[in-house]
C-alpha cells in the first residue's frame, strides 16, 4: 500500500494540477460504509458533505444490482431493454405530469448542456438568465453561464447572451430579508426587457436551493413569479436539481416543488446513481418533439442497462428506506440545534436550508456581516480532527455546508453538534 506522501507526489506527477485536495492535511480514504468514511489507518469519519452517495457509501443493494446487471449485459439505447423503460416509468412519476420524456446522460454537466440545447432549440435563442454565484457545470457551455466560475480565478467575461441577476441571498444579498422577492423580481424583469428589446426569448436556469452559492434558500414567492414572467415572455425554465434533488430537502422530493413551480426542463445528477456516473434530463413531449429535428441523439453510455438498473434501485431504496422522511426529521432537529448554537456564538451569522441541505455562515459579527473565510476554513479543518467531514462554499467561501448521505441519523446530528460546540468554543 502506498503512503500518503507517495500518493501526493504521484498525483503531482500524473494528475492535472487543476484538481484540488480537501483539508490542509489531505485525507487518504480507503473505505466507505453508510454515512461513514475510513482512512488508511482505519480512523472513522462522519461524512457530512457527500450528497453524491445519497443512500450511503457502498450500499449493498447497489452493489448487488450493479453486479447482477454487469454479469448479464451492458449495451446502449439502440437495443430494446427493460431496465431503462422500467426506470423512466418510475422516475417520471416523481415529477409534475407535464414532464414525461427522459434523456439519459452521464454527469450533471452533461444534463445541463443538453437542457441548454433543448431550450435553445425550443426558443431559437441563446439568451440565458442566471443567478450570480450559480454553478451549473464544467463544460464550456456551462462555465459560460456559471458566474461561480467565470467570475472566479481563471475566469473570463461571459458571452453577451448571458444575463446575470443578483443572487437572491436574503442574508447578505443586494436586497435582504424575507420580503426581498419583488426587488429580485425587478432585476429579473430588467433582464427580460433587455432580451425582449433584441427580439429574443429568455431561457432561465436556476437552482431552487443554491449549493455552490452557499446553501441559499430563495425568497419564498420569487421562483413562482419569476417563472410566470419568463413564460409570459415565451421563455423556458430549467430547474437544475443536480445537487438538491431526490428528497434531500425533506419537505419535498424536488427543490422546485418547495416553491410550487413546474419547470419546463429538469436536470438530475449526482445522487441519482449513488456514485455511479448517471444523470437525466426530464422534459415535456412538446420540448422533446421540437428537439427531434432529424439529428439523432446518441449517447454511448447514457441510459445503458447497468446505469438504468442502478438508478432504479437508488429510487426504490429512497422510497423503501424512507430517506426523504429521515431528511425531514433529522434535518429539522439538526437545524434547531444549529440555531441554538448560533444564539451562543457570534461568528455564526446565519443558519439556513431545509432537510439535510443546511448551511452555517461564518461572520465577524452579526451587524457588519464581514465574512470570515479563514475562520470557516479553520473550523472545517478542526472538525476533521474531531472525525467530522464538512466543506465551505459560497461567493466568500465562508459558508459551512452540511449535506450528508441521507442515512444520517439523530445520533450523527448530536455528534456533529457536540463537535461544533467544542470547535466553536475554542475559536
Ligand atoms: N449543477 C449543479 C447545481 C452542481 O452542483 C453541479 C456539480 N457540483 C453540476 C451541475 C455539475 O455536475 P457534474 O459535476 O456531475 O458534472
Uncertain segments: none
Silhouette: globular
The quaternary state of the protein chains shown equals single chain
Measured by DSSP, the beta-strand proportion falls in 15-25%
Please report the number of helical segments: 13
**If you average the pLDDT, what whole number results?**
97
What small ligands are held by the chains? 4'-deoxy-4'-aminopyridoxal-5'-phosphate
Major beta sheet, strand line-up: 4-12-11-10-7-5-6
Give the helix proportion (percent range).
25-40%
Structural class: alpha/beta
* Cα end-to-end separation: 37 Å
The description of the largest β-sheet is: 7 strands, mixed
Radius of gyration over C-alpha positions, nearest whole angstrom: 21 Å
Give the strand tally: 17
Summarize the helix and strand pattern as letters: HEEEHHEHEHHEHEEEHEEEHHHEEHEEEH
Task: Please summarize what this structure is.
The chain is of the alpha/beta class. Helix content is 38%, strand content 16%.
General description of the model:
This protein has 427 residues and is of the alpha/beta class. The chain contains 13 helices and 17 strands. A 7-stranded mixed beta sheet has the order 4-12-11-10-7-5-6, sandwiched between helices. The chain has a 4-stranded mixed beta sheet with strand order 1-2-3-15. Strands 13-14-17-16 form a 4-stranded antiparallel beta sheet, covered by helices on one side. A hairpin with a 4-residue loop joins strand 2 and strand 3. The model has no long low-confidence stretch (mean pLDDT 97). Bound molecules: 4'-deoxy-4'-aminopyridoxal-5'-phosphate.
